[in-house]
Amino acid sequence: MEPAAAGRRAAEPKCCLCLPDGDGSLRTLPTSYVETLPPPLLRPFVDRFWTRTDVGEPRSERPHRILPDGCIDVIIDLAHGRAEVVGTMTRAIVVPVHPSACLVAVRFRPGAAVPFLEVAARELTDRKIPVAELGRNALDLRHAAGRSPGEALAILENALLRRLPSVHLPDPMVARAIALLFKPSPHSIGALARELGRSRQHIGRLFLQHVGIGPKELARIARLQRAIAYLQRCPSQSLADAAARLGYFDQAHLARDFRLLAGATPRVVHAGAGSIFPIQSLFGDADFGA
Q1: Chain segment 126-173, per-residue pLDDT in tens
Q2: So what's the pLDDT on residue 165?
Q3: Mean pLDDT across the chain, nearest whole number?
Q4: What is the three-state SS of the chain?
Q5: Among 103, 133, 145, 247, which is most exposed with the fewest C-beta within 10 angstroms?
Q6: Domain spans of the chain?
Q7: What pLDDT shows up at residue 272?
Q8: Distance linking the first and last C-alpha atoms of the chain
């Protein structure tokens, strides 16, 4: 089986990650991770497909720190023959390099996984659940077991495409709210409520249903993602100046959010470029301040 996404994937060297930079070029990071754009029909729902292959990698390779990003992923573990849903994360996790790891996954856009998974996002937050346990309408990924990464990616993509005629588009109010929270100058929660013409409580309930966390927590995560991107692109910038530019009260506020959400100091995150990277695609054409 030829992977459906083959025509959209550029060739990357072994153990490198190629991510779009703010100017549209690709930047390479030292890890066995590759991202693929979804086909146009899936783009309202899917941010990226991705694969990670650690086969043959030494155990001494730096572990990956996975940042919270507001997204829900479906991950197929080819080495162990299982498929799991990973809910929206509220804290970073550190994943060691394993010589046999081979993962194929889809990362849904914030608020866009529920139409495919048919479960409230809040029930998945900070959890990892076998896809089969989502009920009789769960995505059928059984045929991915024993396949190559390219074949498994095609199976995953085709499973979503087959489901597409029966799913509804992401909630438009939630999608609008998320876009406002990921802007370079994001709305406050009060301004967000006024813009949408709904109460904070109503918006909070919608977010728990569709995103898995409240709008205030998603705003903190978006700011963290933006801050990490900025610090990695502007290593000479002082933390105090970066904090002011990125919407933190002061340097201590920035450091506290990094510790709580990323589990590391800003300097550790900067030094970990390559094993710690933000999901810049979520910001579209936003300016990261380079």
Answers
A1: 999 999 999 878 899 989 988 999 999 999 999 999 999 999 999 999
A2: 94
A3: 83
A4: CCCCCHHHCCCCCCCCEEEECCCCCEEEECCCEEEECCCHHHCCCEEEEEEEECCCCCCCCCCEEECCCCCCEEEEECCCCEEEEECCCCCCEEECCCCCCEEEEEEECCCCCHHHHCCCHHHCCCCEEEHHHHCCCCCCCHHHCCCCHHHHHHHHHHHHHHHHHHCCCCCHHHHHHHHHHCCCCCCCHHHHHHHHCCCHHHHHHHHHHHCCCCHHHHHHHHHHHHHHHHHHHCCCCCHHHHHHHHCCCCHHHHHHHHHHHHCCCHHHHHHCECCECCCHHHHCCCCCCC
A5: 133
A6: 6-166, 172-283
A7: 64
A8: 42
Assigned token pair, 111: 């608020």
**How many residues are there in the chain?**
290
Domain covering 172-283, topology = Arc Repressor Mutant, subunit A (1.10.10)
Question: Quick one: tokens of 68?
Answer: 């919270």
Report the candidate in 116, 97, 113, 102 with the shortest Cα–Cα distance to residue 144: 102
Write down the pLDDT at residue 11: 31
What's the pLDDT tens digit per position in 193-251?
A: 999 999 999 999 999 999 999 999 999 999 999 999 888 888 888 899 999 999 999 99
For 37-51, write each residue's pLDDT tens digit. Answer: 999 999 999 999 999
Q: Is the pLDDT of residue 56 over 60?
A: no
The tokens describing 210, both together, are 């569709």
